Amino acid sequence: MFANPLQKPTAKGKTFQDREAPHQYAISDYGYGKDSVKILHVKRDGPVHSIKEFEVGTHLKLYSKKDYFHGDNSDIVATDSQKNTVYLLAKKHGVENPENFALLLARHFMQKYAHVEEVHIHVEEYPWQRVSSEETGCGDAGNCNYTNINNRARHNHAFIFTPTEIRYCDVVLRRTDPKQTVISGIRGLRVLKTTQSSFVNFVNDEFRSLPDQYDRIFSTVVDCSWEYSNTDNVLFCKSWNKVKNIIIRNFAGDPNVGISSPSVQHTLYLTEKEVLDTLPEVSVISMTMPNKHYFNFDTKPFQAVVPGENNEVFIPVDKPHGTIYAQLARKDITSRL
Asked: Count of H helices and E strands in the chain?
């Protein structure tokens, strides 16, 4: 999923000029590439194998627009060639994480083709984890010859798909801009807690029907992305895991005590603030948290069947839903999110 910024407004009194345009119109944005290139990389370290499965997008913007205006394809790096580049660089250099692989691809296209003005690489990682002894039913007394990682027996070469969330990144390199844009993200992280969420004292007028909610189910699907100001010494996996842990900690709190949430907005802000406080290499963070509602089933008309109040049975309602979002940045920082 590629996000293209809108054309920046020109200075007052000036118009956008495209000297290649053969008529009065100008191409204000353009580019091309290969999307959804799927790749699985297996690293074999003796009996222990590690895997990375990515879905990659490569987009190029050329200096010339002669392919558009005149049908001249002499500068085009075919999208099929871009696809092959993904596989060949993975074979040559290996695959470590989405960000480093995206940087490798982007730098290759910039260095290989002098007529490329801009490269945008998008990488999504498929969430595979090693099968553990618990998942196979092997206990301490079994004959499982698994590698022990973090004091937990895990399989050498078998994996299980765990779609809790999607990790992704975007890398943009521009020949005219020495700063490389690296954006990391989490998408589809669905969380729920059954108490310590309220929503009260909001606008009360003739359009309101929702009563004050002093204790409600709070569920959302978190989408979060952040941009690095500098990537020279960044450990991308460590930073990504820190952000994920911060999101969950501000949502859930202590395992035994929890944490109060007076609104989705407040939880979102506290999360973004802690990320900026904890990770100085992050310049800006953006989050979206839509409400996934669970409404109490009204048992009052059915007292003869089930007497008493109901606080156990709820109706999941996905649509319509509220959407809360915000972007938090360090002052005097311009973001490309």
From this structure: 6, 13
